[in-house]
């Protein structure tokens, strides 16, 4: 793929974030819908989900790919807490779980208000240990990525799990289908994607909220819209630029919401994660494949 075909530069600032000699590498193909990439720096590997195949995969830098977990209970999004434990969103179990260091699975959330969650989708962990996740209905709409069922929750919410108490609280209840989410590098804001336009003539945008007292979301406002497909998973670099999935590749937005440019990917992108030794390698899950490309910036994510 030529540089012209690979990059769509919309703003000169994007040229400072991409490496001209870098190329998009397909690391693995054979998934049905690849999702939820998370980098393990201490293990030097990437783990991601293959939802319809009900498995999780592991890639290591020598190119080897193995099955990390099967069956996976239709795991979608993944992240790590500050202790390095894997936190996962299960469509099949309609729950958020933590994988302990000895391999045991701990259920962190599976209901709210006495009713089952819809199908937890994506998850992030704040430095205070609190866990924030989205709960759209994608995983119960059919048997392809979970188990078909009627939703029990009246709305599709964003939740916060308190670290000391384990208490679950709905922090946003006005989304059509909340999807990807990420904290700004300074953790003063939370950004949340709404992918409702898959089923409605409405949002394909990312909203931003201020975080008050580390617990509440206020001052909801529009951040950006995706002009190709819908926003799914996204992450920030250390300069506060937001890198998000889209139908035609990865879109990069400046902190002021300006579209800086795109990395064109031949399959619909679902999610991204920075990784590698210096966190300057962008890993991309896209339909059937796992891709990567080196950048000249570094991911703002922990551990």
Automatic annotation (TrEMBL):
Binding-site residues, substrate: 121, 145
Keywords: Hydrolase, Metal-binding, Zinc
Cofactor: Zn(2+)
List of catalytic residues: 232 (proton donor/acceptor)
Residues involved in a divalent metal cation binding: 35, 179, 232
Sequence ranges assigned to domain SMP-30/Gluconolactonase/LRE-like region in this UniProt record: 33-287
Cofactor descriptive note: Binds 1 divalent metal cation per subunit.
An example Gene Ontology molecular-function term: hydrolase activity
Protein name in the entry: Gluconolactonase
Lineage summary: Bacteria, Pseudomonadati, Pseudomonadota, Alphaproteobacteria, Hyphomicrobiales
């Amino acid at each position: 793929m030529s540089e012209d075909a690979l990059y769509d530069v919309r703003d000169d600032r994007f040229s400072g974030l991409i490496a001209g000699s870098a190329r998009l590498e397909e690391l693995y193909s054979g998934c049905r819908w690849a999702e939820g990439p998370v980098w393990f720096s201490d293990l030097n590997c990437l783990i991601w989900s293959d939802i319809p195949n009900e498995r999780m995969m592991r890639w290591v830098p020598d190119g080897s790919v193995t099955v990390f977990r099967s069956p996976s209970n239709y795991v979608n999004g993944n992240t790590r807490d500050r202790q390095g434990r894997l936190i996962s969103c299960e469509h099949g179990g309609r729950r958020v779980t933590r994988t302990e260091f000895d391999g045991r699975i701990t259920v962190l959330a599976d209901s709210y208000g006495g009713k089952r969650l819809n199908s937890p989708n994506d998850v992030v962990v704040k430095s205070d240990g609190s866990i924030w996740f989205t709960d759209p209905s994608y995983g119960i709409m059919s048997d392809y990525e979970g188990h078909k069922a009627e939703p029990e929750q009246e709305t599709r919410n964003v939740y916060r799990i308190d670290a000391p108490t384990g208490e679950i609280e709905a922090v946003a209840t006005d989304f059509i289908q909340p999807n990807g989410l990420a904290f700004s590098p300074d953790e003063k804001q939370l950004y949340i994607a709404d992918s409702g336009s898959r089923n409605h003539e409405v949002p394909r945008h990312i909203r931003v909220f201020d975080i008050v007292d580390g617990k509440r979301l206020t001052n909801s406002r529009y951040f950006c819209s995706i002009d190709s497909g819908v926003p799914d998973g996204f992450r920030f670099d250390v300069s506060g630029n937001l890198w998000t999935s889209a139908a035609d590749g990865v879109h990069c937005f400046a902190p002021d919401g300006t579209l800086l440019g795109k990395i064109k990917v031949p399959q619909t992108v679902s999610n991204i994660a920075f990784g590698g030794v210096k966190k300057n390698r962008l890993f991309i899950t896209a339909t059937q494949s796992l891709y990567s490309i080196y950048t000249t910036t570094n991911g703002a994510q922990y551990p």
